[in-house]
């Protein structure tokens, strides 16, 4: 269950519906004041024309039809003129209604665009931990289902609510001027309808919130199953997955059924209350007409006439109708506010903290002093620009010297997974990590990138504490080739250029040749302009990995991390790739994680990890001589899990 919801009586409820509504109104106040002012003006005009149309019935009956019936006159010209004026007023009301709905569409779509933009921008700044602890489907549901519910409220519920409030005020004042007693009857029915709406709406409210949560859970499960269809079929897991889906779907069905069960009761109640009110008003109005006195009317009539009753009846419809519509919109408002809370909960996540101040710059040697200085030219030399507290600035060439000093780390503060890790990687060295799954190999490389912060200890990069280096600059200096490749919709050329957006076509071709990807790319129908979709599903796993390696090559980073980079490549392809990999690693500091010990034999240092600790270190020959864990792995007496 999301953090924004608490439990009451076993059911989730919104934490701060009022605050959420005010926050949504803040978007209107910020960017759409003028358009919203026009909406309010048009609503006032619409309300005024609605009241005028009801009063016109009284005028027509009392001032034209009754006198004509009594006198027997056949002169319809005054009546026609009055109808013409009323038609003009109706036309104004129609135009005003059209305009406020039109402007509200622009406002609502603009707000949704602003919210989606803000969500996406803020999501880019979330720490990796957020994506580790929230399912893909739940995050996606905030972009889709929750924004859909919000759109319904902004496009329909808000303008209808405003129109209802303004129209009700106009109509209520007008009804009072016609008859106090009949108005009291309307108020009595209004109180009854509010009580019933609150009671039924309160029942549905908590289920609508639960429904939104269920949508996210269901969406996440379906997307996970779609992505893992091959694995599911290989292990004949269809029936088990169906059981899991049935459980989630049953919960979704229950919440949706309960929410809509109560929601669908409200409108019939309101409609039938309206019918009863209409009948009561007709009976009481008739009695007032027959037995009325001066005390019964504010207008001074001795008796209420037929025109006044007809006008009041029409006004009561104009009063009850919008109230009924408002009650109908309550459920969409509840659902929208529940969705908005989930959206704002995501937007309010703490962004990734970056207190670094050391930046990565292009550098060149000054001809006179021989020292490094900052430049805008592409010299191929990179350096760290390190401002100090005394106002001086040091420029240190980026070499790729990475050192760990007594590092402890835990994804959870109470559970440390790395213990007292100390290691060094000198510029140009290849450092390999070997160990069973869960030993901490990938965690170490994640710390180099500062995807997570240390619990204790230090990591220095070219002698600089990495906490002082801006994260963007730190990560720009490190290339990563992961076991799971991620390709994006676009051409092969665009996917390789993802590593360096400023790369020329020739640099892309060179990177592909370095990774031995050029050969298979040239054999594709459109070569480098071949479109990739669905994460490169039209390529083999090995080809996708080759593109990932080429993408890293075009970035030309001084430090590289290879996390099982060749695990998805067959032996023949691995041989082709290894030459390119060796060329790519030349002169760079490289951290390698591999299950195939053949890929790490030429490493300068091999670290053997077990349960978050380095238990052995040395080169291949040294570790073989020690006849410890690495020796057992290499000779086949022990297997990696």
Task: Please provide a brief summary of the model.
The protein is α+β, with helices and mostly antiparallel strands and 641 residues long. The chain is built from 19 helices and 18 strands.
**What is the strand arrangement across the widest sheet?**
12-15-16-9-17-18
- Tell me what the CATH architecture of the largest domain is: Up-down Bundle
Biggest sheet descriptor: 6 strands, mixed
Roughly what is the average pLDDT, rounded to an integer?
81
Kindly state the number of beta strands. Answer: 18
| CATH level-1 class of the largest domain | Mainly Alpha
At the third CATH level, what is the topology name of the largest domain?
ABC transporter transmembrane region fold
Helix/strand/pairing category: alpha+beta
Radius of gyration: 36 Å
The outline comes out as elongated
Helical content class: 55-70%
What's the structural domain tally? Answer: 3
Count of DSSP H/I helices: 19
Distance between the termini: 34 Å
Proportion of β residues?
Answer: 5-15%
Query: Which ranges are low-confidence, i.e. pLDDT below 50, for 5 or more consecutive residues?
Result: 1-14, 293-302
The CATH homologous superfamily of the largest domain is named ABC transporter type 1, transmembrane domain
């Amino acid at each position: 269950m999301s953090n924004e919801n608490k439990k009451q009586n076993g059911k989730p409820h919104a934490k701060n519906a009022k605050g959420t509504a005010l926050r949504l109104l803040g978007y209107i106040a910020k960017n759409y004041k003028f358009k919203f002012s026009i909406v309010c003006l048009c609503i006032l005009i619409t309300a005024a024309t609605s009241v005028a149309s009801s009063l016109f019935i009284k005028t027509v009956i009392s001032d034209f039809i009754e006198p004509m019936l009594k006198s027997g006159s056949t002169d319809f010209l005054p009546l026609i003129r009055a109808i013409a004026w009323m038609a003009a007023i109706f036309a104004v009301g129609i135009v005003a209604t059209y305009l406020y709905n039109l402007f509200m569409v622009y406002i609502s779509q603009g707000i949704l665009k602003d919210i989606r933009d803000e969500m996406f921008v803020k999501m880019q700044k979330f720490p990796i931990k957020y994506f580790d602890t929230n399912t893909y489907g739940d995050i996606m549901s905030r972009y889709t289902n929750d924004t859909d519910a919000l759109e319904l409220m902004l496009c329909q519920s808000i303008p209808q609510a405003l129109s209802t409030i303004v129209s009700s005020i106009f109509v209520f004042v007008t009804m009072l001027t016609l008859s106090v007693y009949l108005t009291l009857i309307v108020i009595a029915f209004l109180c009854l309808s509010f009580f019933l709406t609150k009671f039924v709406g309160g029942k549905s409210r908590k289920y609508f919130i639960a429904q939104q949560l269920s949508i996210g859970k269901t969406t996440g499960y379906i997307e996970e199953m779609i992505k893992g269809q091959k694995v599911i079929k290989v292990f004949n897991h269809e029936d088990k997955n169906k059981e899991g889906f049935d459980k989630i779907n049953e919960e979704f069905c229950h919440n949706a059924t309960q929410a809509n069960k109560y929601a669908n009761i409200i409108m019939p109640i309101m409609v039938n209350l309206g019918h009863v009110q209409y009948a009561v008003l007709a009976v009481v109005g008739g009695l007032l007409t027959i037995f009325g006195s001066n005390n019964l009317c504010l207008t001074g009539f001795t008796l209420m006439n037929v025109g006044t009753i007809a006008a009041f009846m029409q006004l009561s419809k104009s009063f009850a109708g919008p109230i009924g519509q408002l009650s109908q919109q309550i459920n969409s408002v509840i659902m929208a506010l529940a969705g908005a809370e989930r959206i704002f909960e995501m937007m309010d996540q703490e962004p990734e903290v970056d207190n670094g101040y050391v930046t990565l710059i292009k550098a060149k040697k000054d001809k006179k002093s021989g020292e490094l200085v900052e430049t805008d030219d592409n010299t191929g030399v990179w350096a760290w620009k390190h401002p100090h507290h005394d106002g001086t600035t040091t420029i240190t060439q980026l070499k790729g010297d990475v050192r760990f000093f007594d590092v402890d780390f835990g994804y959870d503060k109470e559970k440390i997974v790395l213990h007292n890790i100390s290691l060094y990687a000198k510029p140009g060295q290849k450092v390999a990590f070997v160990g069973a799954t869960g030993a901490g190999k990938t965690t170490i490389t994640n710390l180099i990138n500062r995807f997570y912060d240390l619990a204790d200890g230090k990591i220095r990069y070219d002698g600089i504490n990495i906490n002082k280096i801006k994260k963007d600059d730190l990560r720009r200096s490190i290339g990563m080739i992961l076991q799971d490749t991620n390709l994006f919709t676009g051409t092969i050329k665009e996917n390789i250029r993802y590593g360096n957006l400023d790369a020329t076509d020739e640099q892309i071709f060179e990177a592909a040749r370095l990774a031995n990807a050029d050969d298979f790319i040239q054999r594709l129908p459109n070569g480098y302009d071949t479109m990739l979709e669905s994460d490169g599903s039209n390529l083999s796993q090995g080809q996708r990995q080759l593109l990932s390696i080429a993408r890293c090559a075009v970035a030309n980073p001084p430090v590289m991390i290879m996390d099982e980079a060749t695990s998805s490549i067959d032996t023949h392809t691995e041989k082709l790739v290894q030459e390119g990999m060796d060329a790519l690693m030349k002169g760079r500091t490289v951290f390698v994680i591999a299950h195939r010990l053949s890929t790490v034999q030429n490493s300068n240092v091999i670290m053997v990890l077990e349960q978050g600790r380095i238990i052995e270190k040395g080169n291949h020959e040294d570790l073989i001589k020690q006849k410890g864990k690495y020796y057992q792995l290499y000779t086949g007496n022990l297997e990696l899990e």
